[in-house]
Fold Meso-diaminopimelate D-dehydrogenase C-terminal domain-containing protein.
Amino acid sequence: MPAFDRCFRFFCCSLLYLLFNELFLCQKIQKFGLIIYHFSIKKSKKTHSNAIRRIQGVADARQYTHAKPETMSKVRAGQNPELQPGDLHWRECVVVLANGANPTEVERQIKEMPNYFAPYETQVRFVTQEELDRDYSSMPHDGVVIAAGETSPGNKALIEYRVRWDSNPDGTAGIMVASARAAYRLNRKRETGAFTILDIPPAYLSPRSREELLAKFM
């Protein structure tokens, strides 16, 4: 499937998820990131990977967030559990130690770091710089959004959306191109001002004409 079509479907699925959840379901939303590489996703902010690198004795590091399968199973089963942040995910930290660093002390500081790793279950693994560069240099993004509720009393409903990218920068670039395309079409209609993605007709994001979209997707 061409990249533009993938991006268009990504936007449509996201909008449909939001609208269907608000219109048809009356319960809570739970978000699960299966493999989220925080450093590549939030490039302009202080990320979990950067937070580890600031610890004395750390030469380099990567951090990944994983969903807890048992929690996802409860949500998919319609149990709608009350969850705290630490119930949703666990953290994986892959760390290269500086010469002479104390691994026990580095691990303690990582696990006790507020807002980043406490109160999450956190696993710390020490590797060489060569291993880190070879095995952890990619920037994947893999996430699931699950909305669970009822269409009417006693009738359960579940909406699930997943995105899996080997390269989060590639996916982000596709979204930016689609947004620029929508801005161009708004300008052609002399519509100006600030818009959120909810204000944009999905057809404006696609490289296809309205006639092509109706023929291919409807």
User: Anything to note?
Assistant: The chain has one domain: 3-217. The chain has nine helices and six strands. Residues 3-24 form the longest helix (22 residues).
